[in-house]
Design brief:
It contains 13 helices and 14 strands. It is of the alpha/beta class and about 475 residues long. The longest helix has 25 residues. It comes from Breznakia pachnodae.
């Protein structure tokens, strides 16, 4: 068989996209709570606080905060071995800089983890998934070294509280988003210059490294990984100028895992900073912190691939779509314009395993699509099954033929949740349909899609039966 007997099959969500209950039990406002809904043509807006009459999808989402027992029971029915989720920092420290944690928030996640463990589901927990306590804006969020200390205190609190319940941790979701979407990555202004973004990224690297070391000292069984936002590109042609332009683009992204997996900044990045006059806010001992805080494994999202070439002037994120100015004529696209490239998943697994020789996890992969509920309540989503089947088949080849060490696979939005890119509910990823619309209206009833039963069979056969 391709996959080990303890392979971690599961699914993934994020607190700000599923929990709702945005002010319940003492939770504070976070950066996601002031992002309005958008769609495939309209950008999400960031408002100055919560404005009455605006639609903020994180406020209600799918109300997983109150439905988590029902949802986890459905995950267990599919046979999940792991559930990738995130803790909302603002539920633990409502202002980010509080002297004491919020007990109600800690208790909630105790209940969530206990529910997972009851079914033999291993929690895989992201510490910061596209939400930062809004109060930390007064410090400049991650541009200020003080926020490192606030984050480390948060990590210390949850590591101690959930020691023995949570083995696998991720520090920052899609950490390379600081280069593209700094507000989501860390509450940094969208118009921040590169010096500001690289300062914030540096502080997140330091914070992550400190968290890794702390977790290991508390419990050597704890494993802490990094999470890369899956941007992978091909050269537009075999013209060496296109090849070098593509290499340059990929290095803009890969320096993030280079730092977290190797424990130091790569020479190519330091030379780039030198040319641009960018300085890092280094303190004495930081080099040792980065080196001692290397991650145990690398996790990443994979949805699509891109193309770059000598005409690529930059990289834009528009209404949840990624654009380099090039398209790939060999690949189909989703309703939201994302390429469908299963073979690219195998390519990415080999790229990372060859580069770092670290265990890997694919913690996001899936198809956002419009789903229709039939008159009898059934939801037929063969397009989702086809997408996942083809990607898992390539994943198997990477393990079986290429020798990649793969720990687990958690498709994104295993239950329908709010889209991070567009703020929509109608862009659905899940195996489980949730009756709620883009305005937060509906019964919130959960229904099994055809893909639910298909994925259950995949897990039962450890990935051998993909029919």
């Amino acid at each position: 068989m391709s996959f080990s007997k303890d392979f971690l099959w599961g699914g993934a969500t994020a607190a700000n996209q599923c929990e709702g209950a945005y002010l319940d039990d003492g939770k504070g406002l976070n950066t996601a709570d002031v992002m309005t809904a958008g769609d495939a043509k309209t950008e999400r807006q960031i408002t100055d606080g919560v404005i009455e009459g605006k639609n903020y999808p994180s406020h209600v989402a799918i109300d997983h905060y109150h439905y988590f027992k029902e949802d986890i029971a459905l995950f267990a029915e599919m046979g999940f071995k792991t559930y990738r989720m995130s803790i909302s920092w603002g539920r633990i420290f409502p202002n980010g800089d509080d002297a004491e944690p919020n007990e109600a928030g800690l208790k909630h996640y105790d209940e969530v983890f206990d529910e997972c463990l009851k079914y033999g589901i291993e929690p895989l927990v992201t510490l910061s998934h596209y939400e930062t306590p809004l109060n930390l804006l007064k410090y400049g969020t991650w541009t200020n070294r003080k926020v490192v200390d606030f984050f480390v205190k948060y990590c210390e609190t949850v590591f101690n509280r959930y020691n023995g319940k949570v083995k696998y941790w991720l520090t920052f979701n899609e950490i390379n988003s600081m280069s593209m979407s700094p507000w989501m990555a860390g509450g940094v202004s969208l118009d921040a210059d590169e010096q500001t973004r690289m300062t914030a990224a540096y502080h997140q690297f330091i914070a992550s490294a400190k968290a890794v070391k702390m977790a290991h000292e508390l419990n050597p069984e704890m494993k802490v990984g990094m999470m890369y936002g899956g941007l992978f590109s091909y050269a537009n042609t075999c013209d060496p100028k296109d090849v070098m332009a593509n290499d340059k683009f990929m290095k803009e992204m890969l320096f993030y895992p280079d730092v977290q997996c190797r424990g130091y900044y790569p020479a190519y990045k330091l030379k780039e900073f030198e040319r641009k006059g960018i300085t890092l806010p280094k303190l004495d001992g930081d080099d040792e912190i980065l080196l001692e805080g290397k991650v145990d494994f690398l996790s990443y999202s994979y949805y699509f691939s891109m193309v770059c070439g000598q005409e690529t002037k930059g990289f834009s994120v528009d209404c949840g779509s990624m654009n380099t100015g090039y398209s790939n004529p060999y690949l189909p696209t989703t309703d939201w314009g994302w390429t469908i490239d299963p073979m690219g998943l195998r390519y990415s697994l080999n790229l990372f395993y060859d580069r770092y020789q670290l265990p890997l996890m694919i913690v996001e992969n899936g198809l956002g699509a419009y789903d229709k509920v039939e008159d009898d309540g059934s939801i037929h989503d063969p397009y989702r099954i086809d997408y996942l089947r083809e990607h898992i088949a390539e994943m198997k080849k990477a393990v079986e033929i290429d020798g990649v060490e793969l720990l687990g696979y958690t498709p994104w939005g295993c239950i329908d949740i709010v889209s991070a890119g567009t703020g929509e509910m109608k862009k659905r990823y899940g195996f489980i349909y949730v009756d709620v619309d883009d305005e937060g209206n509906g019964t919130f009833n959960r229904s099994r899609k055809d893909s639910f039963y298909w994925y259950k069979k995949v897990i039962e056969t450890n990935g051998e039966n993909l029919d």
